[in-house]
Specification:
- The structure is a single chain.
- By secondary structure, the protein is mostly helical.
- It folds into 3 domains: about 5-35, no CATH class; about 60-330, no CATH class; about 335-450.
- Helices cover about 65% and strands about 0% of the residues.
- The protein has 21 helices and 4 strands.
- The protein has helices at about 5-10, 30-35, 50-60, 60-80, 80-95, 100-115, 120-140, 145-160, 165-175, 200-220, 230, 235-250, 255-270, 290-300, 305-320, 320-330, 335-350, 370-385, 395-415, 425-430, 435-450; strands at about 275, 285, 355-360, 365.
- The strands form 2 sheets. Strands 1-2 form a two-stranded antiparallel ribbon.
- Helix 12 (about 235-250) packs antiparallel against helix 13.
- The protein is globular, with a radius of gyration of 28 Å.
- It comes from Planctomyces bekefii.
- This is IRE (Iron responsive element).
Length: about 450
Amino acid sequence: LLLLGPVVYLGFPARQTAGAVADSGGLGVLSQKRQQYDLGEATLGKVDPSSSAMNLLLLGLRGPAATVLQLKAIDYQERKQWAKLRATVDSIIMLQPHYVQIWKFQGWNLAYNVSREWDKVDDRFYWVKEGIKFLILGTNRNQTVPILFHDVGEFVQSKMGVSDEKKFFREFFVHDPDPRFKTTSGEPGPDRAINPDGKDSYLVAYDWFVRANEKDDNDGVIGVKGKTHVFFRQGPARALLYFAKTRAEKGLFDEHIPAWDRAYKSWMDDYGKMDFLGLDDKKYRLNCTEDELKALAEENGVTLQEQRRIWAQNLDMTNFRQWRDIADLERTPEMLEARRASFEGKKAYNEGRNSDTMLPDKTVQISDSQKSLEAAMTQWAKLAEKYPNMFIDGDNVEDCLLLVQYYRVVCQLNGRNMPDSYPLKDIWDKHPSRHPDAERNFLIETRLQQRK
C-alpha cells in the first residue's frame, strides 16, 4: 500500500494538449519523460475500433497489429484506393514511430511506386512530394537516426535529378504547379513543406546530407546501419557536383566555374580526406598521398602494397577518380565555352529562329539556330580532341547527342537531309542505341520551354 501512491503518481497516463504535448498536471511523470525523450509509443494510433488490428492492440500486440495494417495498405494500393492507403500508412507510423524500416519502405512506396500509377506529370509530382514529406516526418520522430536524414536527401536528389521526369520535377520543385503554392505576385512558388527557402533541389538535398553526416558524427557508432559508410558520407559532395552541372543548363555562366570549384574542393578535401574502414577493419583514405599511404599501412599492420590495393579498390568502387576528373574538366574555360555555345544554340531554336532565308540573289542564308548549333558542335568536337577521356562522363555523351538531335530537327524543318559530314557525327554514329533517348530529351526540353 505504501508503494501504491508513488506508482500511481509516476505511472499515470499523460494527457495530450492541442499541441500534442504531454501534460498531466504533475501526474504521469514516466509518460511525460518517455515523450520528452522520444523513448516509446504512447498512442494507439487511428485504428478502426471494429477491426482485427484493434483487437490485437487491446491484447498488447502492437507489432502484429501494425502487420495487419501493412497488409491492408498493400491491398488498398493494389485497388488504387489512394486516400485509404495514405490513412492506413499514417496509422502504422502512429503505432510504430520508431521502426525505421516502416518510414523507409512507405516513403519509397509513395514517392516511387504510387507516383508511377499516375499519368499526368503534375500528379506524379504530388505523390513524390508525399513520399518526401512522409520521410521528413520520420526524421522528426527519429532525430538520432542518420539514415532517415540521408534518405530525404537521396529522395530529393534522385527524383528531381535522375528520374524520367527530372526536367519537369526540378522546375516544379521551385515553381510548384499546384495553385495553393502561388506567391503573393501570383507566380508559382515552392511547396514550403519540402522546400522552405525556395532553393534548387540539389542544394536542398545537400542540406539534408549535411545533417545526416552531422548525426553520424554525433551518434558514437562506427558506420551507418542501412548503407555502406563510404557511400553514405559522399552525399554533400555529390549534391554539389550535381548542382554545378545545372549552372550552365540555366544559362548562369558566371556561376559555372565557382560552382565547380566548390564541388571539386568538397569532393577532394571534405570527402576525400575522410578515413573509412574497409574489409577486416582496415583504414583507408580516398584522397591519399604517398606518405599517407605509408602511415596508414603501418597503422593497419599491412604492407604498403596491400594498403595500395585496398586504396585502389575503393577508388574504383566510389568512382572517386572519375568525379575528380569531371570536376577538373568542367572548371576549364574551354568547357565553359562549350556549355555557353550549347545554350545559345538551343535558345535560338526555342525562340523560333529556325527558318532559312532566301536572299535577293537567290542564295540561301541558313537559319540562326543552325549557325549556333554548328558553332556549338564544333566547340564540343575541339574539346573532345583535346580531352579524349571526357566521354567517360555519360552526361557529356548525352549532351552531344542532344545537340545533334536539335541540328537534325532544324535540317528537317528546312526540308534538308543531314549533311554527309558535320561536327560530332562520329559521336552520333557511335551510339545508335542512345538515339531514342536523345529524341525523348529533345521533346522534353522543348515542351518545358513552351510551358514557360
